[in-house]
Amino acid sequence: MDNGIICIIQARMGSERLPGKVIKEIKGTPMILHILNRLNRANKIEKTIVATSTNSENDRLEDVVKAAGGNIFRGSEDDVLKRYVDAAEQFRGKYIIRVTGDCPLISAEVIDELIDKFLEAKVDYMRVDVPNTFSRGFDAEIFTREALMKAHYKATEARYREHVTLYMYEHPEEFSVERMEAKESWNRPNYRLCVDTKEDFDLVEKVYEALYDQNKGFEIDEIISYLDNHPEVAGINQFIIQKNV
Question: Which sequence ranges are marked TM in the entry (predicted)?
Answer without folding.
Answer: none
